[in-house]
Amino acid sequence: MLATVAVLAAVIASFLYLGIDFRALVARESLVSMAKFVAEFFPPDLSPAFLAKTAWGALQTLAVSALGTLLAMLGGAALALPASGRFGPALRQASRFVLNLLRSVPELVWAALMVLAAGLGPFAGVLALALHTSGVFGRLFGETLENVPPAPERALRDAGSGAVAAFAYGSLPMAWPQWLAYALYRWEMNIRMAAVLGFVGAGGLGQMLYFHLSLFQQAQSATVIGAMFVLVFIVDTASALLRRGLAPAHA
Question: Is residue 202 within a helix (H) or strand (E), and if so which, with residue range?
Fold first, then answer.
């Protein structure tokens, strides 16, 4: 009861502190301005040349998200091993510090830094996604390893197996389905973020959207936004089907 009252008090205090005025949002002038702005996006530009350009941008966004997520899985798995306490408390604390640092920096900030380091283009987006998501995966993968029963790996070690083989055949098969489920879910998020990263020059649909919005080309912007929706819908559907297939492995 006390916790509920504290949460409600915090919510009310937040509204009062931020000075949020919902009346301005639904005022006639605001509604008219928003309706006029939205109307400028119709009809979208469906010319074959621009559709082909948009499809190429969508493919680039998909590639950035997929490669960034794959690299993050490798980096997260490498950091998850010491973060789960397998190499002693010192490495555990050091790796957790690195993971906290990686995921505390937003993707947009990483992208701005990577644009300075690698230049404009999709490579900067790949690096930004990989760095931030490595921090996320490292924590999730590490917690999964901590919850894996140690008996199978210990039995293999007692039978004379090496440390790597014992981990690969004793613990990894139990952790892998959960790792893959985390990776698929995070890939859904990275698809959206890859589109946003284009606003800082990381390529793909986001860069196209920023360019056309800057020139007040609303028809072209509407086409790009539609492509973002279609891309996210396809990836979300495919990811949900794959995770559903992994459900028996979690049981």
Answer: none
Angle at Cα 170 formed by Cα 165 and Cα 172, nearest 5°? Answer: 90
Cα dihedral 111, 112, 114, 120, rounded to 10, equals 90
Which sign, positive or negative, has the C-alpha torsion 71, 147, 180, 163?
Answer: positive
- Which structure tokens are listed for 144? 């999964």
Neighbours of 42 (CB within 10 A): 9
Query: Are 193 and 65 contacting, i.e. CB atoms less than 8 angstroms apart?
Result: yes
In single-letter form, the type of residue at position 148 comes to: V
pLDDT in tens, 181-194: 889 888 888 888 88
pLDDT of 129-180, one tens digit each?
999 999 999 999 999 998 888 888 888 887 888 888 888 888 888 888 889 8
- Long-range pairs of 98-106 with CB within 8 A, sequence gap ≥ 24: 98/135, 98/138, 99/134, 99/135, 99/138, 99/139, 99/142, 100/135, 101/135, 102/131, 102/132, 102/134, 102/135, 102/138, 103/132, 103/135, 103/136, 103/139, 104/135, 105/131, 105/132, 106/132
